[in-house]
Amino acid sequence: MAITLYSYWRSTAAYRVRLALNLKGLDYDTITVDLTDAEHRREDYAERNPQMLVPFLEDGNTGVAQSLAILEYIEETHPEPPLYPQDPAERAKVRAFAAAIACDVHPLNNLRVLNYLKGPLAADGDAVSTWYGHWIHEAFQALEKICSDDAYTFGDTVTAADVCLVPQMYNARRFNVDLTPFPKLVAVDARCLEVPAFAGAVPEKQPDAPAS
Hints:
Elements: E1 3-7, H1 12-23, E2 28-32, H2 43-48, E3 56-59, E4 62-65, H3 67-77, H4 88-109, H5 111-118, H6 125-146, H7 160-174, H8 183-192, H9 196-199
Parallel strand pairs: 1-2
Antiparallel strand pairs: 1-3, 3-4
Helix pairs in contact: 1-3, 1-7, 4-6, 4-7, 7-8
């Protein structure tokens, strides 16, 4: 049975999963869930994914929520090419880097949080941008030190660390965050975007992206 990805074009977490699927060379169907129109809160989607978030992956009778769990499911069911090193210590480094983005910085800057800042807390645009940039810098200062001097985040092959980094770099640019202090991260991001699997996963190329 075909793999189905429930996705929203600008979802950072869905972007990660698209990258993993593309890097593995897997065919998949996309069903779009418009977060701005609260489609993730519709009864039919909530029954499928009680967390009412995207992404959500269906593979036959298996449904998986949460992007990091989906990445590891994809790795375990389709191990080639690998997104995680075989060595346990190196694998732990990749997982830690990915978690620093997916669990530390991204939750503070996702759509739900930004809407709450702008809505109930009545933060203006400048305040929201300052909030966003603060947490990006907080995370990237550490990740810049952790990142290797090789082609990618850890070595000369793409890993799940790069899969998590590139969408967060996209977000940083979207909010005009100064990336000058992070030359290694900027270089890795640029190399990744030269890879067809990365180029094809960018938000603007998704079926639900608005016409430019």
